[in-house]
């Protein structure tokens, strides 16, 4: 966690407002205070700013007053609806200000939020915070931004106080959110996989603690797999040299069978098995497992070789 014992601020540092003092908003404010930025804070529910104020932050009575206090505002609240409510409450105070919306949202919501900020006369960036609160203000923190590139360049040094890696990924305000969604897809399906594996182990009379050391083997295999599959997917080439889709279908089928026999929820396993079996039925059984990406994409109306069923409406 960021050490922010010193309440000193430096006149050379850009004043920053933080709207939203949940765990992440508080971590952002602490990192800015540690980097000697003058910081103004506001939260919908009063009383969550006491320790930040004790360390030098200025409390604001409203979102509008908070935005008016600094040229740059970071917005970090629960979701898109909460962000919209705060932006509308700040209203005219946003005119001529810079906004970084660090609330996790979907790509279309990020674009809508950029339009909303522009409607209030603010320039904006959307930021996706890809790492948890303990990494904020640390070299291990990763934040990606997209939207107004000039704005990013102007505030790059300030944003660097928040994380070791802060990247701008392009002018589309939804692009950072696209990275976020893909990474969260990986995280939550991986997390679910581990939790399901623990349930399966316990159903087989194996304690979670006894199973855990074996689970440690998987992350060690993943870096090579991540790069190899990324290359194959980008090249559209999926040789079945290491493992095949047909073999994956057989493996998934026996895991689903084991889980079902123990009365566990198998919805996610069944879904993964269905995709894999569809790929086998489409003649891809001897391809490598990375070919499943093309099966997942097959129903997209714009995908090459799309197999969208007749009558199904494009999404
Ligand atoms: N925590 C992490 O490690 C992490 C990592 C990456 C990204 N993020 C993202 O950062 C954002 C903030 O997360 P968080 O961890 O700080 O906690 P959170 O529980 O997602 O958000 C709490 C904040 O949202 C505010 N809020 C909720 N509904 C609101 C509304 N309708 N109007 C105004 N404010 C509202 C809360 O205000 P009240 O106090 O008044 O309820 C509080 O300030 C989320 O989008 C999250 O996905 C978090």
What report would you give on this structure?
The protein has 315 residues and is α/β, with parallel strands linked by helices. It folds into 2 domains: 16-172, Rossmann fold; 179-297, N-(1-d-carboxylethyl)-l-norvaline Dehydrogenase, domain 2, CATH 1.10.1040.10. It contains 12 helices and 8 strands. The protein has helices at 23-34, 50-54, 63-68, 80-90, 107-119, 149-159, 175-203, 208-215, 217-235, 245-261, 267-284, 292-297; strands at 16-19, 39-42, 58-59, 72-75, 98-101, 123-129, 142-147, 165-168. Helix 7 (175-203) packs across helix 8. The model is unreliable at 308-315 (pLDDT under 50). It binds NADP nicotinamide-adenine-dinucleotide phosphate. NADP nicotinamide-adenine-dinucleotide phosphate binds at residues 20-25, 43-45, 48, 76-78, 82, 85-86, 103-104, 129, 132-133.
Question: Structural class per helix/strand content?
Answer: alpha/beta
Total individual domains: 2
Strand content: 5-15%
Taking all residues together, what is the mean pLDDT? 93
CATH C-level class of the largest domain is Alpha Beta
Write a compact overview of the structure shown.
The protein is α/β, with parallel strands linked by helices.
């Amino acid at each position: 966690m960021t050490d922010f014992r010193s309440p000193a601020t430096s006149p050379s540092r850009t004043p920053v407002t933080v709207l939203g003092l949940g765990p992440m908003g508080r971590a952002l404010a602490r990192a800015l205070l540690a980097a000697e930025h003058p910081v103004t804070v506001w939260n919908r529910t009063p009383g969550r700013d006491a320790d930040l104020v004790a360390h030098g932050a200025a409390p604001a009575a409203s979102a509008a007053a908070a935005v008016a206090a600094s040229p740059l505002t970071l917005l970090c609240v629960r979701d898109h609806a909460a962000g919209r409510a705060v932006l509308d409450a700040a209203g005219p105070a946003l005119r001529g200000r810079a906004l970084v919306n660090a609330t996790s949202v979907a790509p279309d919501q990020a674009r809508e939020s950029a339009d909303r900020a522009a409607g209030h006369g603010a320039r904006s960036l959307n930021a996706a915070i890809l790492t948890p609160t303990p990494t904020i203000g640390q070299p291990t923190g990763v934040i990606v931004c997209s939207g107004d590139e000039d704005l990013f360049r102007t505030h790059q040094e300030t944003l660097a106080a928040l994380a070791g890696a802060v990247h701008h990924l392009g002018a589309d305000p939804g692009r950072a959110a696209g990275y976020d969604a893909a990474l969260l897809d990986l995280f939550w399906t991986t997390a679910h996989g581990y939790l399901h594996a623990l349930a399966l182990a316990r159903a087989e009379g194996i304690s979670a603690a006894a199973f855990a050391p074996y689970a440690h083997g998987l992350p060690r295999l993943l870096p090579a797999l991540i790069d190899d599959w990324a290359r194959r997917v980008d090249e559209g080439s999926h040789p079945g040299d290491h493992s095949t889709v047909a073999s994956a279908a057989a493996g998934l089928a026996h895991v689903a069978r084991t889980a079902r026999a123990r009365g566990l929820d198998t919805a996610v396993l069944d879904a993964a098995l269905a995709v894999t079996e569809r790929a086998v039925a489409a003649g891809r059984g001897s391809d490598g497992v990375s070919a499943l990406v093309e099966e997942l994409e097959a129903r997209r109306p714009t995908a090459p070789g799309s197999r969208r069923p007749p009558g199904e409406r494009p999404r």
